[in-house]
Design a protein that fits this description.
- By secondary structure, the chain is of the alpha/beta class.
- Helix 2 crosses helix 3, helix 5 packs antiparallel against helix 9 and helix 6 packs parallel to helix 7.
- A hairpin with a 2-residue loop joins strand 7 and strand 8.
- It is elongated.
- Strands 6-13-11-9-7-8 form a six-stranded mixed beta sheet.
- The protein is 34% helix and 18% strand.
- The chain folds into two domains: 125 residues, Rossmann fold; 150 residues, Cytidine Deaminase, domain 2 (3-Layer(aba) Sandwich).
- It holds the Pfam family LpxI_N.
- InterPro entries: LpxI (IPR053174), LpxI_C (IPR010415), LpxI_C_sf (IPR043167), LpxI_N (IPR041255).
- This is LpxI family protein.
Amino acid sequence: MNPTSTEAPVAIVAGGGAMPLRVAAACRATGRPYVAVLLEGFARPEEWRGVPQITIRLGAAGAGIDWMKRQGAHQIVLVGDIRRPSILSLRPDAGAAKHLARIGMKAFSGDDTLLSAVRQMLREEGFDPVGPTRFLAEAQSPAGLLTQAGPNAMALADIARGVAVVRALGALDVGQGAVVQQGLVLGVEAIEGTDALLSRVGTLRREGPGGVLVKLVKPGQDREVDMPALGPRTVENAVAAGLAGIAFEAEGALLLDRAQMVAHADSAGLFLLAIRPDDHVGAATAGAAT
């Protein structure tokens, strides 16, 4: 079989959450065969019944690669939530140890650097690593307002402040999000993830108009393979944290179940705004002065 043929199965390397299952559903809808590499402690095997699958721990990359080759997979989709472990806790198998030796100090760097090294390793093994956007193009949004509520002048100023902060974080390969209220940075996203960030800032909010969560693609980040994801739970947590809205990069975020997100936001009076970050650069001072 020609490994580049559409008859070759897609290998879905699945972490937690619903996004891997959405990719699987898209494959079924188009008749594309697929197999699943389930990451232990993140993906749930019971949700993949009937699908050719293997469950591996994060340190068993060698076993996963060998299995995908035996399945005839060529394209690999890395998708889903994982918590990055410490290097010492990986307990790499022989194949993973070989690749870790090649990756070297990049394994101790930021997520973008590590992901870039992992993608290069997969290419060297003969695979074609692709992103969920190949299968879930409808999960992205062009610039514009998705909800009935929209940002006022203060919220726009907070968005501009958030854009500046998140871009600075992203340049250091730290995180993709920040929460800003009335010009004050209540919290920034690092390894803990968006849900934990929203939980934390809920205890820090000031009186008056609520803040804004800003989520952007990092500068230089591979938009196809590693893109911020937002879903109904993000909206629920933003409402619980007392935020006024969520601003995310247009065509730079995956929206999990957009209809449910919008319904939750509308019922709470929260805005969802897809932005072009450059449109908000330098707008913080002007917005605050109005």
